Amino acid sequence: MVQALFLHQNYPGQYRHLAPLIAKRRGARVVGLGERANQAPPGPQHLRYPTPEGAGEKTHRYLRPVEAAVRRGQAVARALTGLKQKGFTPDIICCHPGWGEGLYLRDVFPDAKLLQYCEFYYQSSGGDVGFDPAQEVTLDETARVRTLNMTQLQSLEATDWAVSPTLWQRSRYPGFIQAKTSVVHEGVDASFATPNGASHVKLPDGFMASRQEEIVTFVSRNLEPYRGFDIFMRALPEILARRPKAHAVIVGGEERGYGRLPVDGKSWKATMLAEVGAKLDMSRVHFTGRIPHDGLVALFRLTRAHVYFTYPFVLSWSLVEAMGCEALIIGSDTAPLAEVMEHEKNGILLPFFDHARLADTVVDAIANPDRYQPLRKAARRTMLERFDLHAQCLPRQVKLFDAVLEGRPGSDAIP
What we know:
17% strand; Rossmann fold; alpha/beta; 415 residues
């Protein structure tokens, strides 16, 4: 009987599809462990570890994330020790090491195979830090960023193999980690993210978004510069002025996301509305907050133009879902997108900070939808060829899982 453990702070995270599939195997026992349940899938036994304390107030600021990770790793180790005492000894552990869960796995289960997830390795150049030319990257900032990687390095040093969702994300890691990392995306369900299905959404403010309307969409978990929210907002007055029937649907929360909040502590939504709000017809600007997944996909089906900008950072699942729905992607010419999209082939790529060009492109997309129809079709073809959950990604995840379990992970390595 194979025993498998899946570890993620917000379980199931990237293991939403793999964990329940492994649990269906005859004789398999699968346990999922996390601090919080994020709609955990049926199948695996799901356990939670207590929320650990954060770092102390007197801890050096470089070390606060590290101390928090150590406390989390300690909480996980204690939970796993309890499982071990009850007879659960996993043959393989799949873990996202970013928050500290992976620190002490080898100490609790020295014989288990470890397959860990490489999402993002922080550096002070070539990625998110210093991408905005207005950001000064001081020695202090460089040192802070370097220290952020301590948790991952210790976890990955002990791993048998690793997996990263994109080539660019893998390329950010040190060579010794890249050498034992396969590239396999989590995948998107092509039967869910499809152009066929509901194509109208009643928004929280009562507006009915449909294909009959000139809809422009922007989606981010949190509205922030990392995903180009400020650039989109600066382009929006021109878009709405030149297309008097257009509506902007903006999906996302107002909490702190990947980057920092504005210096006054307000949300980026408040900051950008203070900057450009007087130039906007707010009856045509719809901030929805976060919405149910099926409503989000329906928006992708009906939008005339979906704007997805990102710093050189983690590629969003929402971008792949939008491609699957044949949305016209107007994106930033940054490394994560350049790996997935080709300009004027399956989308449009623009300089990140050129909000005037963004406005011109969105206006043209609204005015001439037929011109961009081939790009929409090509976007879905790309999604099917590279990111289809059932035809591409999940079989490769299973292949890698089995290879690591059987002690031959290099057989699935991707150049």
